Amino acid sequence: MLTRNPDLRIAIACYAQDLADEFGRNIRNHITGNDGTDGSLDLGLRIAPDNGAARRWRIAGRRGGVRAVGLTAGLTGKPADAIFIDDPIADLIQANSAAWREVVWGFWTAVANTRLAPGAPVVVILTRWHEDDLVGRLLAAEDAHRWRVINIPAQADHDPAKGETDPLGREPGEYLNSARGRTVEQWEQIRVAVGSRVWNALYQGRPTAPEGDLFERGWWREYTSPRWIVRDDGSYWAINPDEVIQSWDMAFKDTDSSDWVVGQVWARWGLQVYLLDQVRDRMTFVETRKAVRRLAVKWPQATLKLVEDKANGPAVINSLSNTVAGLIPEEPHGSKYARAAAVSPFAEAGQVFLPAPELAPWVGDFIEEHASFPNGRHDDQVDGTSQAINRLLLAPLLAGTLIVEADELDSELDDYEISPI
User: Fold this and answer.
1) Pick from 124, 146, 168: which residue ends a domain?
2) Which domain holds residue 315?
3) C-alpha–C-alpha distance, residues 59 and 117, integer Å
4) What angle, rounded to 10 degrees, do the helices at 336-348 and 380-389 form?
5) Do 251 and 288 touch, CB atoms closer than 8 A?
6) How many other CB atoms sit within 10 Å of the CB of residue 363?
């Protein structure tokens, strides 16, 4: 970059100052070692003699150069024409520190981003130790489309059926040609030795949240055939359920900006509950109102629509009270964790059914969010689940109003391949 434009002011940031110094020193030494003497390549650049420290040096006679900083240092007052953020998180221990992740995010929002010249490029290079790292937050932001992601996993894990491709043109399951000469067997040994979380982060570039302690992935039951029919008017109609409800978890902002909103459709057959449908997206308040209306039209059986009585919930109910029937505020009791813990035994007992991926492509994210709760970044789907299962199973069972005899289930549900509990 400097050979093309010696006036570029380049900033390099790392988790520690000594690592940043090393980068600055290596670049400086590369320039001084390629000055045309002793038969070396001449880059046409010279380091200013009065400004040549490893962490801060300038090209002689030009304004360009390099400033290398640790994340706790500052760039205040120092404009940048390009910024390279390399390894803002040192390791898994640091990645698990919410405090350090906030330091990294604060450096980007309050320091680096404010020093960028118009049109200046930014390059972030890191190991994806945690889903809530700098890249995770950048890609979750509204301007995520501005970023180009280049991820080359050790083992190709793309899904051609979804139109996904590997950046190197490999077949699914194929390992990288190792610069260290690793064989397939050695790759497999590494994968087993480091465990799934380190493998996904360090080798695949796809971080997973630490396991939670409430919902195991294997607890969920799966159904592969639709539990509904589609009527002539385009609405969806569950086949002879005992109940069908909606469960909504709203955003925290009553503004025009977007935040995560989740709406779910659940049905109960006896003592088994089925997740039939879900919408989840970043929505403004106006978009949320439209989503509630659309789901109400799509599933007319779900006359009861639970809306958590927090965040935007009351405002949504008030604004739709004349157009959407059955919107009921649901006051949450206890913490998110306590509410999820109260309903997780139903999943463990095999009473909660989820649609197969071919019916609902989003179900994988649903399972992963529950598996990582409460350690994951998001919990909006968990909130919707606990609210729905509490209303369908937990509350009526505790009140003694939901009593189902096994003989009744046998005769009533045989046609629908639902096994009584």
Assistant:
1) 146
2) 217-416
3) 19
4) 60
5) yes
6) 18
Element (H, E) at 53: strand 47-53
Q: In this structure, are 111 and 236 located in the same domain? A: no
Determine whether 59 is exposed, middle or buried from the number of CB atoms within 10 Å of its CB (0-12, 13-18, 19+). buried
What's the token pair of residue 283? 């929505």
Per-residue model confidence as pLDDT tens digits over 199-240: 888 899 988 766 677 899 899 999 999 999 999 999 999 999
Alpha-carbon span 4 to 184, nearest angstrom:
42
How far apart are the C-alpha atoms of 30 and 319, rounded to whole Å? 64
Q: What is the pLDDT of residue 201?
A: 87
CATH number of domain containing 244: 3.30.420.240
Q: Parallel, antiparallel, or unpaired for β 82-86 and 122-125?
A: parallel
Structure tokens at 137: 């937050």
Residues whose CB falls within 8 Å of the CB of residue 97, separated by 6 or more in sequence, listed in order:
none
State the chain's maximal CA–CA distance in angstroms. Answer: 94
User: How far from each other are the two terminal CA atoms of the chain, in whole angstroms?
Assistant: 67
Reported pTM: 0.59
Of the candidates 351, 336, 368, 340, the residue with the CA atom closest to the CA atom of residue 219: 351
Residue 123 lies in a domain: yes
Q: What is the pLDDT of residue 404?
A: 58
CB 354 within 8 A of CB 363: yes
Average pLDDT over residues 341-348: 93
Residues 61, 394: Cα–Cα separation, whole Å: 75
Q: Are residues 186 and 319 in the same domain?
A: no
CA angle 249, 254, 256 (to 5 degrees): 110
